[in-house]
């Protein structure tokens, strides 16, 4: 009995010992309150959301009765619920810009000491690995005729170093919906090539880790479900369209960005402007997240 116990403990320690230096930790301790989100306090900046309500209308920590990914040996951590509704219209420039009426979005952005760029500086040099686990929230299903961007790193030019996509990619004109693989996760590189895809089955945690070499501009995808060990599902692949240096670095977003469908009533010029135009149903939709952290590889 005693021997068995130490085996279990060793296994647990091994998982932690295998972890490298943690550069950013978005795993939410059990004592952390939802008000942290309203305050936009570390670890997450909550500015990207609708302006009608405080952050806790769109996101929250689910307490000890919801189980996070078991990948990290049940390390105590709260599941994060992120939702959008028809009020989830982000207005950039702290409310002074043009409303992004085409999108619905609620995103948490990694920050350190109240600053996303502080976190970026720490996370985005050498070779680092971005971890996150995603589960369906059956209370508020997605609509797979739309495109969703659910995790990405966004340099200031609006491109993504890598991105996780769900649903049917936006096209103008609208194609046959839902698109093939709409209910699959797609891991995209900067040039929007699909590096890896896997079905978004419900009831299980989907664990992803993206290894980013910031100097050599490569990516590698690791994946597992539930408590299974992460396994490489791609080689180290070149990501050559990322701008060199700081222009190719940006904020680490986790959440829901839902694109519209083309609205035939819009002018031809506006039909491709996904940020400001298009059709949205205004439904409440959500996802669950846990296991968000970034570690140094080299
Ligand atoms: C925190 O937010 C979540 C999700 O919105 C909600 O389910 C939960 O009840 C909230 N916790 C408290 C203590 O209010
Ligand atoms: C955003 O604007 C509000 C007033 O609308 C102000 O209180 C707040 O400090 C501003 N935040 C930033 C980050 O500038
Ligand atoms: C955050 O602030 C602390 C205390 O001022 C400082 O030691 C630390 O270096 C800062 N971290 C970052 C990433 O800015
Ligand atoms: C999903 O989106 C399509 C396209 O806009 C819409 O026709 C459909 O009613 C939506 N489904 C739900 C459940 O809202
Ligand atoms: C980055 O590229 C250089 C030059 O091609 C090579 O020597 C180095 O091993 C690469 N680093 C990694 C981490 O692959
Ligand atoms: C969603 O909000 C837009 C305005 O932003 C409004 O025109 C539309 O009628 C709303 N849709 C629903 C279903 O409430």
Automatic annotation (TrEMBL):
Superkingdom of this protein's organism: Eukaryota
The residues the entry assigns to the signal sequence are: 1-19
List the InterPro entries.
GH131_N
Q: Name one Pfam family in it.
A: GH131_N
UniProt keyword terms in alphabetical order? Signal
The segment(s) forming the Glycoside hydrolase 131 catalytic N-terminal domain are 22-296
Under which name does UniProt file this protein? Glycoside hydrolase 131 catalytic N-terminal domain-containing protein
Q: Which organism is it from?
A: Marasmius oreades (fairy-ring Marasmius)
Give the lineage. Eukaryota, Fungi, Dikarya, Basidiomycota, Agaricomycotina
């Amino acid at each position: 009995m005693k021997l068995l116990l130490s085996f279990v403990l060793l296994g647990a320690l091994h998982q932690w010992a295998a972890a490298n230096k943690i550069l950013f930790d978005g795993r939410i301790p059990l004592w952390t309150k939802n008000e942290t989100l309203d305050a936009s306090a570390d670890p997450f900046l909550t500015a990207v959301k609708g302006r009608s309500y405080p952050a806790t209308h769109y996101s929250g920590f689910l307490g000890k009765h919801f189980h996070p990914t078991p990948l990290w040996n049940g390390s105590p951590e709260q599941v994060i619920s992120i939702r959008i509704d028809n009020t989830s219209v982000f207005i950039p420039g702290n409310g002074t810009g043009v409303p992004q009426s085409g999108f619905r979005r609620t995103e948490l952005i990694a920050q350190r000491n109240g600053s996303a760029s502080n976190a970026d500086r720490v996370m985005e040099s050498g070779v680092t690995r971005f971890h996150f686990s995603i589960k369906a929230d059956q209370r508020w299903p997605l609509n797979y005729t739309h495109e969703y961007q659910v995790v990405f790193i966004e340099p200031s030019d609006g491109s993504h170093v890598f991105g996780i996509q769900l649903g049917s990619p936006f096209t103008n004109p609208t194609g046959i919906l839902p698109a093939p693989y709409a209910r699959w996760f797609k891991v995209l590189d900067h040039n929007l090539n699909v590096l890896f895809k896997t079905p978004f089955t419900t009831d299980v945690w989907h664990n992803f880790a993206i290894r980013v070499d910031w100097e050599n501009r490569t990516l590698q995808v690791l994946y597992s479900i539930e408590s299974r060990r992460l396994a490489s599902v791609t080689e180290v692949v070149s990501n050559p369209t990322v701008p060199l240096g700081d222009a190719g670095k940006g904020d680490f977003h986790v959440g829901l960005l839902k694109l519209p469908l083309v609205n035939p009533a819009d002018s031809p010029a506006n039909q491709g402007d996904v940020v400001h135009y298009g059709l949205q149903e205004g439904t409440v939709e959500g996802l669950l997240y846990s296991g968000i952290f970034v570690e140094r590889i080299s």
